[in-house]
Each structure stands twice: as structure tokens, then as C-alpha cells.
Amino acid sequence: MARRVRELIPAALAALLLATLVLAPLGAVALRAGGFGLLTPRDLDALWFTLWQAAVSAAISCAFAIPLARALHRRDFRGRGLLISLMGAPFILPTIAAVMGLIAVFGRKGLVNTGLGWLGLPEVSIYGAHGVIAAHVFFNLPLATRMVLHGWRAIPTERVRLAASLGFGPAQMRRHLETPMLRAVLPGAFLAIFLVCLTSFAIALTLGGGPKATTVELAIYQAFRFDFDMGRAATLALVQVALCVGALMVTARMTLPSGFGAGLDRPQPMPEGVTPASPLPDAAMIVLAAAFLLVPIGAIVLRGLPALADLPPSIWRAAGTSLAVAAGSTILTLALALPLALTATRHRWAELSAMLPLSASALVMGAGAFLIARAFVNPTSLAIPVTLLTNAVLSVPFAVRILIPAAQYLQHNYDRLASALDLRGVARLRYLTLPRLAQPLGFSAGLAAAFSMGDLGVITLFSDGRTQTLPLALFQLMGAYRMDQAAAAAVLLIALSFALFWALDRIGHHADPR
Amino acid sequence: MLTLDNLHLTQGAFHLRADLVVRTGARVALIGPSGAGKSTLLNAIAGFIAPTTGAIRWDGKDITDMPPGARPLSILFQDQNLFPHLSVTQNLGLGLDPRLKLSAAHNAQIEAALERTGLAGFGPRKPSALSGGQQARVALARALLRARPLLLLDEPFSALGPALKAEMLALVGALAQEHRTTLLMVSHDPEDARALCPETILVADGEALPPQDTDALLTNPPEALQTYLGK
Q1: What is the ipTM score, two decimals?
Q2: Which of A4, A113, A196, A213 could form a disulfide with A129 if both were Cys (CB 3.0 to 4.6 A apart)?
């Protein structure tokens, strides 16, 4: 009995630390909040914008994901696997760098407007509500597409063969196979994207702003930095928490489909006859989507690479800081997530506490941490530690979700043997848990590191401009219209984020002794 | 001597009572219809299922609340007896020191156990590079190294072919004799019981009966066993 209690200590400590890190800022915010009477009409606009842009972004992403996934599923072509793998990239791609890419294509001097100028057509602008939505679609269309592709793959081959033997044409395929699958997958995909867009900050900060394109996250930032109105900022933070908790309560009723995961890159073309003979519509869909997703990144790389050598030392310093923050927050994420995942298979409290960070957003945690820190020190001196902690905490729910299935498998298959041999404590961690969980640990470490590397959130509240992470430095270069340097910094940021993910994921695979 | 003192096991609607004694050095088969609770009883003795009431004793000492690894027994499961990511030597080493701090003496013991089970030279291999029969031998070699007085077999050889299974049972019998190990074996095949176990515990109708003579039981089976044996 005593031993069973002792085994729960690491998870209990992790849960306690995580709860403190989430609930202390929330408490500070709640104490400081000045009542909803403080909210200005502008704040209510922000609330409204947050909700409808999230809904529209999710709807557009899903709408385009349907034909794109259908085309990718039923056509085999060279580079198909690579394209589908690249659709997993938004999980790792730093938001601010992607925004740079979108500006390079759709901005005032971007490719699209240059083309329109030649044709004598009026300019389009990337700034404003539609820009925010376009950026959200850029990030979430791949996510939705992967979810729908998962749905396609889950249709048993036997059923597809049956459809072929019954002489189904494309219309019947749609009615009897695709529509039921979409009905199962799309609500989850919509909700997952809606959730992501609800806490959007960096995109709204760079492409939005103004009365018609400010999210609640951005409004918290503005109340803090521009109005110095802590009471209103805290009230807005509470509004954001209410949004997150409300959305969580809706999602708790359903299982969200998984966007990452393996097995999608093997082609599984449809049998003859059930696919329309002309490949043109499918090809057009694939080419357009690939262009929308790849050209912005290509443009930024082309522009940034030559300027890489001219980056000032301050940018390299910022890159070093970001690497250190990413390393620290990744270690902390794993240290919290591993014991919680191992315990969550048996005790519901462990899983619930791991999901606690989903109720707060980066700016809410930042605002709370600022209010607490202000009572003791000058908050700017804590910019880096607070960024590190927030990044780590926000990554825990995802890491735990990745680890739980592997932990279940591990315990189901090896728990009896391990306890029959009295394998426990550090020896058990070293000879059983770490080797068997190496792959999901490496994968979640890679995601956590890339997220921390590319995150532009809390640091904007705390920094005095001298303490810089790489995303913040990039944001400041953009603000100063030094676009060549900004492009170079974006290339550096993208490269470091992908390298971190790739290296950690590799280490995981390599350490897996199977 | 293993004593099951008025032991009651309950899992949902399932219930099993056992009140019996197995003497030291005995070789006992557990036979009965599937679902009667043979494996459940073995798992309770091994410490994976807590009894609702009653006690398990070894040589008079109450082991009912002991963690599985501390009990004076080794158990071989139906499958998953080896860690696939550890080498044969490491898998065996776990039987000597769960923290895998192996001394020269330990390594000599491992070599000897490999030799005894016909696996000399297989130490550096991973279980996946072994055949099913060889994997079963590794598991048996580890039980040998653990040198506990009681050995529980939960059909560990059921996936092997008849010839290989007979060979393994013969090896188990020889090792048990050498070390005066008390043996409890779940079996689906009455011939296995006849070959290796002079005594049998019949598990049927919610009760595990005390050990009785295997030959007599199988030649003249009571009703519960008749249906199962198809006689």
C-alpha cells in the first residue's frame, strides 16, 4: 500500500506544480479584474471579432479541406508523400515567420499585387480582418486536410472494393462513402480549428489591429502596453478564460480527430471506375493548395537567404536566447508531462490536471504573471523566465495527449512482468519506461521545442525591447520596415524551429531500441 | 509449503474459493473448464489480484500483502515474458538484480543459466532474434536465476508446437527436480498434466479443490471435468 502511494508522488508533484503555474496567474487576474463595466465598446468588438473570425477561419479551412483531401486520397503522383508530410509543418512553423511569408506574397509590394499592377487592377491588402482569416486558413487548412485524410483512410478497403464491384460512380461514392465519413470527421476538425483561432495573438498583432480586427488576446496586450490599464486588461483576460473554458466544455463531449500521426503518406488510390476519368479538377485543387501553402515560405526563403550573412549580432544573440528558452521549456514540459501521462492511464485527476493549461491562453498567463511579478520586482527582468515557464506549461496538454496511448500500451504489456521482477524506481525508468517511450517522447519534445522557439506571446508583455527572443526581434524588424533583415531573421527562425523538431524526433527514433 | 487459507477471489460476477495446501517440492497442475479461474488463482498467488478475504502463506509466512516482486516465487506468463528492447543477458540480469548492476559473479551465473537451458552464446541477442522456443527458454533461465522456491506457469508454452512443448515441459521438470522447486502449472492439455504433474488441482464451479492424484482424476473424472474433457 505504501509503495502504491509512493509511486504517485512524481505525478502528484507535477500536477501540483502545473496547477500552481496555471492557477496563480488566473487568480492574480481574477483579483485585479475591475468588473465587466470597465470594458469599452472596443473590447466588445474584440470579443465579437474573436468569435466570428474563429468560426469563419474554421469554416473556410474545412470547406477547402474536403476537395483537397479527396484529391490527395484518390490520386497518386510524384511528391504526394512529401506534400502530405509538409502539411504537418504548420505544427512546427513559427507563426511570425509564416506571416512574413504571407506579406511577401500578398503584401503591398508582394507578388500578387505586383501581378495585379501589371494587369492594371486595384491592389489587395493583407491587413485587416480578411488578412487575419487568410493567415488562419494558411495554418489550419493543412490541419483540416490531414484530419479528413485520416477519415478517408479509416474507411475499410473492403467497403471501397464493394463500392467498386457495385459499379459506383463518383456521385454514389460521395453519397455512400464520403458524406458519412465527413459527417463523423468535420465537426471535430471545425472545433479544433475554432479553438486554435480563439487564442490567436501573433497573427492578429501583425495583420490585424484596429477596431475591426482585434482579438481578445490582442486587446489584452493593447490594454497592457498602450493604455497601462491593468484592471481592464485583467477583465479582458477573464473574458478570454471564459471563451477557452466554454469551448473546452463543448469539445469535452466529443473526441477531436488527430491531425498528426503517421500512415498518411502511403498512397491508397481508389480502384478503377470510381474516380472521375479527368484528373484536371483534382490536379488544379492540389496545385492551388500547394501554391497557397508553399509559395509564401519559398518567397521568404528566397528573400532572406542572401541577407542572412548581414544580420546584426543582436539577432544572433536573440537566436541564442530563444534556443536556451526552447531547451529549458522542453525539459520542463517533459518533466511535467511524463509522470502525468504514466499516471493518467489509471487516475483521472492526472489527465485533468494535464489539460488545465487549455483553460488559459499565453496572454492570460502572461498578464497574471506580470501582476504577480510586479509586486516584487521589475517585471521586465523576468521576461525570459516567464516566457520559458509559459511555453512549457502550454505544451504540456499536447505532450500528455501524445504520450498517453504509448503509456497505456507500455503498462498493458509490461506492468505485470516488471512488478514480477521487482523492477521499479530509477531502474524501471531507465530500462523500461524511457526506452519504450523514446519515440513519442522525442516527438513531443520536438513539438514543444519548436513551439517555444517560434512563440511570440508572453515576451511582448514583458520585454523592454532590449531582452529579445528571435520572434520578438523579427517582429521589431518588421515594425521598422527593415524587410530584408526581417526575411533573413525569418529564415533563421524557420530553420532553427525545424532543426530542433527534426533533431529531437530523430533522437527519439534513434533511442528506440526496437 | 504453500497454503491457501480460505481464499476468496471476486471479480464482478466471478467468484472463486480456495482452501488447500501444496507441499514443498510438489508438482501440481491446475485443470478445469475455461473461465473457471485457473489463471485468476495463479495471478492471485503471484500478487496481481488482491483476494477479498483469506490468506496466502508460504512456509507459514503470510505473503498476502507482499508486492509481486518480493514474493518467494517466479511466474511465467502466457506471453510478454521478456522485454523486447533488452538483450537476452539483460533480461536474465533482471532476475539477479532489478537495477541491472551486474557483477562478474552475476555474469558467470548468467552464462551458466544460458548453458543449462541450451542457449549458450545467445546472450547479446534481442528476443526478436530468437525463435518462440528459445524465448521460452530465456524466460525459464531467468526463473532459474531468481532461484525462488515456487514456480508458477500460466501456460507459457501454449504457442509452441507439440514436440517443442514436450521438450520444454521436460526441461521444467528436470530443473524443478534439481532445485526442489514447487511447481504450479495451468494446463489445457490433460496429457501435459500427466507428463509433468503427479498431482492436480481441479478448478471448477467456483472452487479450487485440494491437490489429488492426476492419473486417478483423469481416468475417472467427475462431472464438471467430463464435459470439459469431452468424455
Answers
A1: 0.82
A2: A213
